[in-house]
Automatic annotation (TrEMBL), chain A:
Organism this protein belongs to: Pseudonocardia xinjiangensis
Keywords for the protein's UniProt record, in alphabetical order: Cell membrane, Membrane, Transmembrane, Transmembrane helix
Subcellular location: Cell membrane
Name of this chain's protein: Branched-chain amino acid ABC transporter permease
Residue ranges of the TM segments: 27-47, 54-73, 177-196, 223-245, 257-288, 300-320
From TrEMBL, chain B:
Keyword S-adenosyl-L-methionine set for record: no
Name the UniProt record assigns to this protein: ABC transporter substrate-binding protein
Organism: Pseudonocardia xinjiangensis
Span of the signal peptide: 1-26
Domain of life: Bacteria
């Protein structure tokens, strides 16, 4: 969970990654999980809903971090897969069934398929070209959502999505929805974490640090990048299905540029490459946008901008950088 | 030692903690169990708490300002009271999209503990909060969002509207143009999104049932079109006698200006849904807008005593003329005041029942109107942009009479 980030400091990787994960971090993770699971028992509905929204956005940010931080592919169109998954899950819930794993699986499948269809082109590029290409794809998908009214509801969005059903009973209560979101979030997070620390993930980090060299060693780098692009799309689709379960509404804004850039912001605030950092970043973004923003007389976005500037200036390696700094003697 | 003013982890976590404590302070309780756990506000009958959710940021911020002013003006003129109740207003920023609008409504409902929600510019937000209100059994008075579905296919007893429907405004123009010598050919153009489609559909239906013929139509990419020349060429070559359009905000400014620059204004007169020339877009369109005719349920030029008093008070207080957005929200306060006079409680069911019995709203600046299927049945006015003493105004040409929401 921590070893994902390879610090630029020589010796940093060797010093940090092998020895950390076991004992103390496992305890911290368990403690966080217990607190998160118990939260609805103590929090009022609005706080619970906000926390659920944070988890949804955190899973989305984590899937983006797999591209940005682990593989070094900065995407501005990742919301396209998040939104596609959300629309698909919503559509299935309305027209077929809202029974628990179905919207989730459909969201994941559509997110992955959408990524598979578009990824073949994008992963052949890198850097700024990748950024612009993903941006273009995101805008195109948003345009489709805006105009394909018979399926997406157009600019008015897909409304009237029924509550997710588990074992035949609808999850109508904010607390139950939260637990559903939390359970799926944990599954998704673990999946991404396993990918990131597998040999496959190590190859991805190699591609991030020096792609020509990886290719020279014999890695089919385009195939690796394509693979991670599809996985990230699938996880984003899962996050999209959670979005529908949580807000029971999808609109073109959910797959637009603003959503994609907020996710990128979350990843950068948290420290690209650190999965738990991306979750912290997502929490900060959603807290400002949804919990503080409405009461700021229209200055919610401004506050978000100020926080971003402060983070870039004061924490150049994001929230995750703090931990590394503490370990190295200063 | 560090050149960079870095944080240590402790200080960063402290900051995070402080930030997250703000929303959490008021967040204790439980989310499991009864969903009707909303706290009873105030001392029983004494206070009614209203959540005013209007855009304070984003492209609709100007509309939000007008709406807030309309609301505050009514309350100031009536001692901040609805009948026996003292009104306490909680304002929240709707933003631009449902991504910000839905959490804002959720926040005033669940965290602010309001009894009634008023506002909402964006139709998607109004449709998106439907389940939220139905499940918490609270009343929402929509003061702009014009999607037909809000009071037709997605109707719920808890959502009422004091503004208009997209089709209502457009259908009146369709009937009028069919009767005024343009029946042999009109070109219809609107942005390619839900509201544009509703406007064109209702216009075409009314125009054709009056014997008119639409000779061409176009949908322009929504929010991204800044050069309308290709579409204007299409209008010119279509042989249309008049053009009907639906644009608002920056698109309205661009379209009207380019229509005049292209030289079409003198040969093919421009008609539109009233938002084309309403509010703060008109001064920016300048002389290009002269002669453009639109239909709407309000103009500050209406000659009735209620409007005269309203315009005078509004202009004296805020230094500019009111728009239809101000009146829509002013009327929300107006109808809530009437409803609370007979309501048996502040829950959504009691308020909805009371709203059903308010009858004719005869002191509104827009003229008398009534609720029909929870949305106004109101007079629609044909207006023309004139120069009145150096300022551009939407002068009343004709009262097209009371109009209902068009049947789907």
């Amino acid at each position: 969970m921590t070893a994902v980030d390879a610090p630029a400091v020589p010796g940093g990787t060797a010093a940090v990654s092998p020895r950390v994960p076991r004992g103390r971090d496992g305890l911290v993770a368990a403690a966080v999980l217990v607190v998160l699971a118990a939260a609805p028992l103590f929090l009022a509905p609005f706080a619970t809903t906000t926390l659920a929204r944070i988890l949804v956005f955190a899973l989305f940010a984590v899937s983006l971090d797999l591209l940005v931080g682990v593989t070094g592919l900065p995407s501005l169109g990742h919301a396209a897969y998040f939104g596609s998954g959300a629309y698909a899950a919503g559509w299935v819930s309305i027209n077929v069934t809202a029974e628990a794993p179905v919207p989730l699986l459909v969201g994941a499948a559509v997110g992955a398929v959408a990524a598979a269809l578009t990824g073949w082109i994008t992963v052949r590029t890198g850097g700024v070209f990748f950024l612009m290409l993903t941006l273009a794809i995101g805008e195109t998908v948003q345009q489709v959502a805006n105009t394909w009214e018979s399926v997406t509801g157009g600019a008015n969005g897909l409304t009237g999505v029924p509550a997710v059903r588990a074992g035949g009973a609808p999850l109508a209560n904010a607390g139950f929805v939260y637990w559903y979101v939390l359970a799926v979030f944990v599954l998704g997070f673990v999946l991404v974490w396993l990918v990131a620390r597998s040999p496959f993930g190590a190859a991805l980090r190699g591609i991030r640090d020096n792609e020509p060299r990886m290719r020279a060693i014999g890695y089919p780098t385009a195939l690796y990048k394509y693979g991670v692009f599809v996985i990230a799309g699938g996880v984003a689709g899962v996050a999209g299905s959670l979005l529908v379960a949580q807000q029971r509404l999808v609109t073109p804004a959910d797959l637009g540029f603003l959503t994609a850039s907020l996710a990128l912001l979350a990843v950068i605030i948290g420290g690209a490459g650190s999965l738990w950092g991306a979750c912290l970043g997502a929490a900060l973004v959603i807290l400002i946008r949804d919990a503080l923003g409405p009461g700021l007389g229209g200055h919610g976005t401004l506050l978000l901008g100020i926080v971003f500037v402060l983070v870039v200036y004061l924490l150049p390696r994001g929230a995750a950088g703090l931990r590394l700094r503490r370990r190295s003697p200063s | 030692m560090a050149v960079h003013p870095t944080f240590d982890r402790r200080r960063f976590l402290g900051l995070l903690g402080a930030a997250s404590a703000l929303p959490v302070v008021a967040a204790c309780g439980s989310s499991i169990g009864g969903s009707t756990g909303a706290p009873a506000t105030g001392g029983g009958g004494g206070t009614v708490k209203v959540g005013l959710v209007v855009p304070q940021s984003g492209v609709y911020a100007a509309l939000g300002t007008d709406m807030q002013r309309g609301w505050e003006l009514w309350l100031a003129d009536n001692g901040q009271r609805f009948g026996d109740y003292t009104v306490e207003t909680v304002i929240a920023d709707e933003g631009e999209t449902p991504q910000t609008g839905v959490p804002a409504v959720q926040k005033v409902l669940q965290n602010g503990g309001v009894d009634v929600v008023v506002g909402l510019v964006n139709s998607a937000t109004a449709l998106g909060v439907r389940d939220l209100l139905t499940e918490s059994k609270k009343l929402l008075v929509v003061t702009n969002a014009g999607a037909e579905a809000v009071t037709s296919t997605s109707r719920t007893p808890y959502i009422w509207r004091t503004s208009f429907t997209n089709g209502q405004v457009a259908a009146a123009m369709g009937t009028h143009l069919a009767q005024s010598g343009f029946s042999e050919g009109v070109y219809a153009i609107a942005p390619d999104y839900a509201a544009g489609t509703e406007v064109i559909t209702a216009f075409t239906k009314a125009f054709e049932s009056g014997g008119g013929r639409v000779v061409g139509s176009a949908k322009t990419p929504f929010g991204t079109t800044s050069d309308y020349q290709p579409f204007l060429t299409g209008i010119q070559s279509s042989g249309a006698r008049a053009a009907f359009c639906f644009y608002s905000g920056a698109e309205a400014i661009n379209f009207v200006k380019q229509y005049a620059q292209f030289g079409l204004a003198s040969t093919i007169p421009l008609y539109g849904s009233g938002f084309l020339t309403e509010g703060n877009v008109l001064p920016q369109q300048g002389d290009a807008a002269l002669g453009v005719q639109t239909t709407l349920h309000y103009t500050d030029q209406l000659d009735n005593p209620a409007n005269k008093a309203f315009v005078q008070a509004y202009t004296a207080k805020y230094g500019e003329a009111p728009s239809c957005f101000s009146v829509q929200t002013w009327d929300a306060a107006n109808v809530l005041d009437r409803a609370l006079a007979s309501a048996t409680g502040l829950d959504g069911d009691s308020l909805a029942t009371a709203l059903g019995t308010v009858g004719a709203i005869n002191d509104s600046p827009r003229g008398a109107w009534t609720f029909e299927n929870q949305t106004p049945r109101q007079n629609i006015y044909l207006r023309r942009v004139d120069n009145s003493g150096g300022a551009l105004v939407n002068a009343v040409v004709q009262d097209l009479g009371p109009q209902s929401q068009p049947a789907a």
